[in-house]
Amino acid sequence: MSPTPAALLQLLWLASPALPVGGFSYSEGLEAAIEAGALHDECSAQHWLLDQLQLGLGRSELPLLAQAIAAWTAHDSARIAALNEWTLVTRETSELRRQSEQMGRSMRDWLRQRAPDDSRLVVLAQLAPAPAWPIAFALAASRSGADARDALLAFGFGWAENMVQAALKAMSLGQAGGQRILAALSAALPAVVDSALVLSDDERQAFTPMLAIHSSQHETQYSRLFRS
Questions:
Q1: Are the C-beta atoms of residues 136 and 83 closer than 8 Å to each other?
Q2: Cβ atoms 34, 40 nearer than 8 A
């Protein structure tokens, strides 16, 4: 079923780079991969991001998001706390963990302005040491009225757009090249989402060793544009 116009607009809002959560300031290891020579042209950048979508988001953030939406809808605070803990302990570097915490806090603050009477915000605010980004996004998505699949598509596209913008800033790709990469990510996203929706807790995983290596290197990279 297609989302209602109101739900669709809410998802577009959540996926927008204009959402004040700071997603534009992160490259998630991409900048360090460029510095190391692993990414050097449009083809290598596209392959890197497709791998990250399928092996990273598709097995970690996206199934987690689906499970968190269900938990927020059921007002299951214990489940939310467990999912939040899993998110933060599985971030493979300190900068990736700080990214999730900062964006989660920013989403929490945005939701306070948008929905101050939602009792679930108390649960979100009490998550320690911070609400993780997918958990906070899930609460916003649960309020939109859209189903989980559409919410995951919005989350994935928002990530893809931010990452393509990071590549454009850090590499000599050009706008046309960036649009081709975004088209490839968009084409792959629905199948990744469908797979994520059926993953169980035991199947969810965060294991992207090369991304972790480059993220660790980025923490001490001499000259950089991004916070991760």
A1: no
A2: yes
Write out the DSSP string of 104-118. HHHHHHHHHHH-TT-
- Look at residues 119, 117, 123 and name the one whose alpha carbon lies nearest to residue 104: 123
Look up residue 26 and give its DSSP letter: -
Residue from 49, 37, 17, 5 nearest 146 by CA: 5
Distance in angstroms (rounded) separating the CA atoms of residues 172 and 12: 28
The C-alpha atoms of residue 81 and residue 101 are separated, in whole angstroms, by: 14
DSSP 55: I
Taking the C-alpha atoms of residue 31 and residue 223, their distance in angstroms, rounded to an integer, is 10
- Contact predicate 156/16, CB 8 Å: no
| Local confidence pLDDT in tens for the 228 residues of the chain | 678 999 999 999 999 988 999 988 989 989 999 998 999 999 999 999 999 999 999 999 999 999 999 999 999 999 999 999 999 999 999 999 999 999 999 999 999 999 899 999 999 999 999 999 999 999 999 999 999 999 999 999 999 999 999 999 998 889 999 999 999 999 999 999 999 999 999 999 999 999 889 888 888 877 777 777
